[in-house]
Amino acid sequence: MFDWLGSTVHGLQQWLYETAVQPLLFALGWMRYAEELFDFTEWVVLGAIEVVVLAVLLGVAERLWPAEPVTDRRAIRTDVLYTLLHRLGGFALVVFALLTPLLDELEGALRLVGFSRINVDQLWPGVTDLPVVSFAIYLVLFDFVDYWLHRWQHRFGWWWALHAVHHSQRQMTFWSDQRNHLIDDLIRDAAMALVAVALGASPGQFVALVIASRVLQSVQHANLRWRWPGPLEGVLVSPSWHRLHHAIGYGHEGRTQGVNFAVLFPIWDVLFGTADWRPGFVPTGIRDQLEGRDYGRGFWSQQSKAIGRWFGRA
Fold it and tell me: Which residues contact 44 (CB under 8 A, 6 or more apart)?
């Protein structure tokens, strides 16, 4: 099955590149970027498949078992726009254009001073280089980094001004995962790319890690009251557990300025004292929204108001 899926993705990638991307490169005189943009086309294909599958499966689940009635469809349409922008490659193209030259220069400079990648999958030849084992190791390491990045998004005021875009959604659905300020995403993606360079994750591994993380995060944000059965609830973040992170009065207040920061594995919150296992259904959003603070309704409004908060003007 995986061979069939891989060949299908590659076929779609080849078709999209030859019919749309390559002619555009010829017209613009950018054929020097042909190899990189062929690889980028894979993100577009995988993202399109991802959106369709999630829209069908989670869309049906939310209709059958909604956590709360959907009352603000305009907000959800805005979240759909964010999702399409990210998962169909629009934002990835910007990241590629901005970060690829910088990462290439950085890696070259590090090699000159004797730094080499850690290559985690080579630590125990015959074991850690097995595809399933290396994927699991990288997934845990990346999630550990993501936990701390997420805490810092809440800890530092300038970063929270941007990250608040994500938390301003009062009507959470599986589309809500990608509602982020573009600068917030750029900072996080740059940090994760640097980690990938340092740990020696291959481009193929990095793509698989990102896809797996994105799918699970879409499930976590879904309009569902699901908790995982038995001990699995303590192993993988569930929609109910993550909802508490978005809840007014829980998710970005108190001593640690929030709870349940883990992106995939709750163990980080347990180890670092930020886990909250209280059951129950709680409204989501930011407390000062109840006092009338406006975080914006549409895409551009949300982006611009965040910049205003950044400079203390909103």
Answer: 16, 88, 89
pTM of the model: 0.86
Residue 43 and residue 144 in one domain: no
What is the total count of domains within the chain? 2
Residue with tokens 């908790």: 227
Joined together, the tokens standing for residue 205 give 């591994």
Q: How far is CA 160 from the centre of its chain?
A: 16
- Residue 211 structural domain: 69-310
Pull the structure tokens for residue 259.
Answer: 């709870």
Which tokens sit at 287? Answer: 């407390």
Q: Are 102 and 29 in a shared domain?
A: no
For 54, residues 6+ apart whose C-beta sits below 8 A from its C-beta are 174, 215, 218
Q: What is the pLDDT of residue 136?
A: 86
| 53 and 99 in a common domain | no
DSSP string over 102-141: HHHHHHHHHHHTT-----GGGSSTTTTTSHHHHHHHHHHH
| Shared domain check, 74 and 26 | no
Neighbours of 308 (CB within 10 A): 12
Confidence of residue 98 (pLDDT cuts 50, 70, 90): low
Query: What are the pLDDT digits (tens) for 24-62?
Result: 777 777 777 777 677 778 778 888 888 999 999 999 999
HSE value, Cβ hemisphere, 13 Å, CA-based, for 311: 5
- Which has the closest alpha carbon to 2: 177, 110, 121, 135? 135
- Answer yes or no: do 206 and 222 share one domain: yes
Residue 110 sits in the same domain as residue 251 = yes
Domain co-membership, 167 together with 242: yes
Cα dist from 228 to 54, 115, 237, 240, 284, whole Å: 19, 43, 8, 9, 20
CA 235 to chain CA centroid, Å, is 19
